[in-house]
Design a protein that fits this description.
Number of helices: 10
Shape: globular
Strand content: 15-25%
Oligomer: single chain
Largest sheet: 8 strands, mixed
């Protein structure tokens, strides 16, 4: 990645209950934002399953937690390094872990394998990720099934919080909880709810939506997206479809 002037990027965290389609939504958002070749997008996969890599056509081989665990291993072996040397090494390794294609870069957080309190290591990594994010116009984070994890493990703040839910009562309950918790746990400028895999407008109108977060749009069940998910195909390369246009309509004015 070439050095650039530091920017104030749009930091969009996509959250929701597991299984509601937030990874597909995240990938579609990256696809839409990347249509403007003058904008640079960083896609961060904060879900341990690293599903966003498949959805975007990246490998996701080297993760931030691989870097973290290597460093913890060195610390536990007593290989002392001063803070500046550690920061330089971590900065280099995070940059090396970035995968790039055209105006999109991808970074996977991965699954932490070493437990315990390594607060200084985690804080340094978060600072480095925030520094890297400053080179981009948009940062899209596919989060875990909760908002606190994204805040703790990836970035200290986000500018936009997008909560995804399907029509299920469980999905909407989780969305409402995230909306409520986020008011105190996350510093953001805008928040919105996107309904996904909805049969039709009639079904959407029958749902009891959580009051804690405003609805910005809904996406119908789409066979093209579903088939791509089942086959593990890259959502960047499938033909335009109604679901993509529905996401476009929802985020227009939300992230721009």
């Amino acid at each position: 990645m070439k050095p650039t002037i530091k920017k104030n990027p749009v930091l969009l965290a996509v959250c929701g209950k597991g299984g509601v389609g937030k990874t597909s939504v995240s990938a579609v958002i990256v696809r839409i934002l990347a249509e403007n070749s003058n904008k640079n997008i960083l896609a961060i996969d904060a879900d341990p399953s690293v599903g966003l890599a498949t959805a975007l056509g990246f490998r996701g081989e080297r993760t931030v937690n691989d870097i973290r665990n290597d460093l913890i291993g060195r610390i536990e072996k007593g290989e002392g390094e001063n803070r500046q040397a550690l920061l330089a090494a971590l900065d280099y390794e995070v940059l090396a872990a970035l995968e790039e294609r055209k105006n999109i870069a991808f970074l996977a957080i991965g699954r932490p394998e070493k437990e315990g309190c390594y607060c200084k290591v985690n804080a340094m990594l978060r600072d480095i990720i925030e520094s890297v994010a400053g080179n981009f116009d948009y940062v899209v984070i596919d989060g875990e099934a909760g908002v606190e994890q994204v805040n703790r493990r990836v970035l200290a703040t986000v500018t936009h919080l997008l909560v995804v839910s399907d029509a299920s009562a469980k999905g909407l309950k989780v969305a409402g909880t995230i909306g409520t918790v986020a008011r105190e746990a996350i510093h953001y400028e805008m928040a919105g709810l996107l309904l996904n895999r909805i049969r039709d407008e009639g079904e959407k109108n029958r749902l009891s939506l959580p009051p804690a977060i405003p609805l910005i749009g809904w996406v119908a069940e789409d066979d093209d997206i579903r088939d791509a998910d089942i086959a593990g195909r890259n959502l960047m390369e499938i033909p335009p479809c109604p679901a993509i246009e529905a996401v476009r309509a929802a985020i227009t004015g939300f992230v721009n």
